[in-house]
Design goal:
The complex is a heterodimer of chains A (about 400) and B (about 375).
Chain A (H helix, E strand, L loop, with lengths): L2 H4 L10 H9 L2 H32 L3 H12 L3 H26 L7 H18 L5 H30 L3 H21 L7 H4 L24 H18 L1 H11 L1 H6 L4 H28 L14 H11 L4 H25 L4 H17 L12 H8 L2
Chain B lengths: L9 H22 L14 E6 L9 H13 L4 E6 L6 H14 L3 E4 L5 H11 L4 E5 L12 E6 L2 H14 L4 E6 L4 H17 L4 E6 L6 H13 L4 E5 L4 H9 L3 E6 L10 E7 L1 H13 L10 E4 L6 E3 L8 H16 L5 E2 L2 E2 L5 E3 L4 E2 L16 E2 L2
Parallel strand pairs in B: 1-2, 1-3, 3-4, 4-5, 5-11, 6-7, 6-8, 7-17, 8-9, 9-10
Antiparallel strand pairs in B: 10-12, 13-16, 14-15
Helix pairs in contact in B: 2-9, 3-4, 5-6, 5-10, 7-8
The chains are: A mainly alpha (about 400), B alpha/beta (about 375).
Chain lengths: ~400, ~375
């Protein structure tokens, strides 16, 4: 597949819209993107409709009241927009922990452990090096967090490559081990003796105020900016470099990749290292921008944990790093709208979880629609189908 | 043969219909106004926000707070909003901000211990006119902003009374305790329960299992079953939601002392009594002060108390509790109410045989030494 094949022809500027559409759809890349967008948006719309029906029947909330409250609670005001983006910030990086390995054909769900260990490593590094100037300190914390996260997920990748251990199970179990190691260290040797920490075991705080500040006079910390940049970089890596091409080839057919002489083991390992580093970085950012010390609040969540939300985001985005940006914002918005639904419609928090549940089922179901819409098929295939 | 296709395939239809619905929904919302600005003018109701770390119907920690919020809702001139399942992370900061900016809240009750540092402190600095009344008793006048209040109750007094009632109910002389984390607050409850039981019969022992975290339903059920298999016939706990422990114990037919809120409804056969919070008292007191026009600085920053102050209470005795047991517990309760009874006094030994409080020393509830309790008293099995 060469680059010239993928770009739409330069003469695509047809006078009529229908012609434009058909010319655009002549490019396989545009066709695939349009198909993915249409099917995913369709799944989202169907989910919203089902959720509206459920809320109408279960809580007698009219769809207009429901969706207007959800809109106000997620993106409809400056306060809620910032809140949604704050909710999305860690999801961007944790979703990459699933999205990147998916490119080499691995299903990794160990984001929580990598996030927690990354956060712990960052918190302890920050404590030891706190005399350093803040920018340098932040870099050291980020590196420490990325290393810790990378080690955990790399272990799952190595087990897969060397011993054929199922990486989904091993990453989940390694993540649980990581959380227990975290608890052991925070409740034991690294525990802060301060009375506030006595009843909430934590490492000593690094600083009085968060080290990582907010972006441009908003209340959204720089973690969002970092997450977006990393997602874009990972997209470029996976779709615009030979490394990415090789990695996707391994994901497509590992035997063909081996036969073609690709270093499969190294590709798997590097991808897992990147994935773990992304989740570890998310943990470092939580420490630097929010918590200032490591304790169970880093990963403990009522309902879905950040790691599981990341898996959800990655699947809805079809493991595309650019899709992750949009999807994380959407999932962040849904999670955030829960507060408004509770406060103004007086429905339980579980309702937003119901919507997230419906969403993931619908997105997975929508996979079956790929290749079923003629518009998105290659012209010759369309013709063959029409003459059937 | 060429033919114009006008029929939509079902899949297209579903997709397009969904999209249309989405577009409609978004367009419909666009016109409605953003947040509301409340408060300020007289005559408007006082907006108050309650934030819980778990579900507010958990038969436990969060339900106890929600019952307090329900009492505030009954008061005239208030508008209460609530948010449940809010994590001790940036999430709680966002929720506080939304309540202040979108609901006009002037008083916020962030009810989880872990909300305090840094989350409540961060928001209190950002919004100096809003009162943040946190549950945990962590306020330090030297370090913390004036618009922060913190309250906590000496619920170990109730655990001591539960221990007395349990001592009369046990036949095996083995009591059970399912605990979350090995932290001073939890140890204090285990110790008070044990001391209460051993006041009646020094042969009694208390088997403890720690689950490691506040909400671990599976481990809590396993711990309960393990304790019952060890011969325990009365159980209590200190976890966020006692529901699993209580239901498991009820199914196995043993007796139960509740915690946080009353679980009598889910254990009609085995429930004896229980240690409950009475947040309604604290919350209505605070709200009355704000309604009376008291400003930041005039509202007490630290509120602590036990049975005497009405911050904790006992579940009413059920029919399972003998007259003898009631009399023994009520006798101590009367002394606690009068302020003449001290639970932690020397000579007191821990379960490794070390003297932790020497003879002649007694620590009343306000003693700072109790805040860092690192031991489990004699008679407790487990660590």
């Amino acid at each position: 597949m060469s680059i010239t094949e993928m770009t739409p022809g330069a003469e695509a500027l047809a006078p009529d819209a229908a012609g434009l559409v058909s010319r655009l759809l002549a490019s396989p890349r545009v066709r695939d993107t349009a198909q993915a967008l249409a099917i995913t948006l369709g799944a989202v719309a169907v989910s919203l409709a089902l959720f509206g029906l459920y809320m109408l029947i279960r809580y007698h909330v009219s769809p207009v009241a429901l969706y207007s409250a959800m809109y106000r609670g997620s993106f409809g005001s400056w306060v809620s927009l910032q809140n949604s983006l704050l909710a999305a910030a860690p999801l961007l990086l944790v979703a990459l922990c699933t999205a990147l390995p998916a490119r080499v054909g691995l299903v990794i769900i160990g984001g929580d452990g990598a996030l927690a260990l990354g956060g712990l490593a960052a918190a302890m590094t920050g404590l030891v090096l706190r005399e350093l100037p803040v920018p340098l300190l932040l870099v050291c914390m980020a590196l420490a967090g990325m290393t810790a996260g990378a080690l955990l997920i790399a272990a799952a990748g190595l087990l897969r490559h060397l011993r054929g251990v199922n990486e989904t199970i091993s990453s989940l179990l390694l993540s649980l081990i990581g959380l227990e190691v975290f608890n052991f260290l925070v409740e034991g040797p690294w525990r802060d003796p301060d009375p506030i920490s006595a009843n909430k075991p934590s490492t000593p705080p690094i600083s009085e105020v968060p080290l990582l500040g907010n972006m441009f006079h908003s209340d959204v910390h720089w973690g969002l900016g970092v997450g977006v940049v990393v997602c874009v970089l990972m997209y470029l890596l996976m779709y615009r470099t030979t490394f990415g091409f090789a990695a996707r080839m391994v994901g497509g057919n590992v035997r063909a990749a081996r036969a073609a002489g690709l270093p499969v083991g190294r590709l798997l390992l590097v991808t897992c290292v990147l994935a773990g580093a992304a989740a570890g970085l998310a943990g470092s950012i939580e420490i630097a921008a929010v918590q200032r010390q490591a304790n169970a609040s880093l990963f403990a969540r009522p309902g879905l944990t950040i790691g599981l939300m990341g898996v959800l985001v990655s699947f809805i985005a079809r493991h595309n790093p650019l899709g992750v940006i949009v999807t994380a914002a959407m999932v962040g918005g849904v999670a955030e709208s829960s507060s408004m639904l509770q406060r103004h419609l007086r429905v339980p928090d579980a309702s937003a979880q119901v919507l997230l549940g419906i969403l993931i089922v619908m997105v997975i179901l929508s996979e079956t629609f790929y290749g079923r819409f003629r518009v998105f098929l290659a012209p010759d295939v369309q013709k063959a189908a029409a003459n059937r | 043969m060429k033919k114009l296709r006008l029929t939509l395939r079902p899949a297209y239809g579903a997709c397009l219909g969904g999209l249309a619905l989405l577009a409609f929904a978004l367009a419909g919302c666009g016109s409605s106004s953003g947040g509301k600005d409340g408060g300020g003018a007289t005559g408007e109701p006082l907006a108050i926000g309650f934030i819980y770390v778990g579900p507010r119907d958990d038969y436990g920690y969060n339900q106890a707070h929600a019952e307090g919020a329900a009492a505030v809702k009954e008061m005239p001139g208030v508008k209460v909003t609530e948010a449940e399942n809010v994590a001790e992370s940036i999430d709680v900061q966002k929720t506080m901000k939304s309540m202040i900016e979108q609901d006009g809240a002037k008083v916020i009750f962030p009810t989880s211990f872990g909300y305090f540092s840094p989350h409540v402190l961060v928001m209190a600095k950002k919004y100096p006119d809003v009162m943040f009344l946190h549950c945990g008793g962590l306020y330090d006048a030297k370090k913390h902003p004036k618009n922060v209040g913190s309250y906590f109750g000496y619920i170990d007094e109730c655990q001591y009374l539960s221990g007395i009632v349990a001592a009369y109910a046990t036949k095996s002389k083995k009591l059970g305790f399912v605990a979350a984390k090995a932290i001073p607050q939890v140890r204090r409850n285990i110790n008070a329960f044990t001391l209460g039981a051993r006041r009646i019969d020094p042969k009694i022992t208390v088997n403890v299992i720690f689950t490691g975290d506040w909400s671990m339903p599976v481990k809590e059920a396993e711990a309960t079953n393990t304790l019952i298999d060890q011969g325990v016939d009365v159980i209590t706990c200190h976890v966020d939601s006692p529901k699993v422990v209580v239901e498991t114990a009820e199914r196995r037919g043993i007796k139960i002392c509740g915690y946080h809120a009353s679980q009598a409804a889910i254990a009609p056969k085995g429930y004896l009594t229980g240690a409950e919070w009475n947040w309604a008292k604290v919350y209505t007191d605070y709200v009355k002060m704000v309604q009376a026009g008291k400003k930041v600085g005039e509202i007490p920053n630290l509120v602590r108390g036990g049975l005497k102050e009405g911050i904790v209470k006992m579940s009413p005795y059920t029919e399972q509790v003998s007259m003898e047991a009631r009399k023994a517990a009520d006798d101590v309760k009367a002394q606690l109410m009068a302020g003449t009874f001290v639970i932690f006094k020397g000579p007191l030994q821990d379960n490794a045989g070390n003297t932790v409080i020497p003879a002649g020393t007694s620590y009343p509830q306000t003693a700072i030494e109790l805040e860092s309790m690192a031991y489990l008293v004699e008679g407790v099995k487990g660590s």
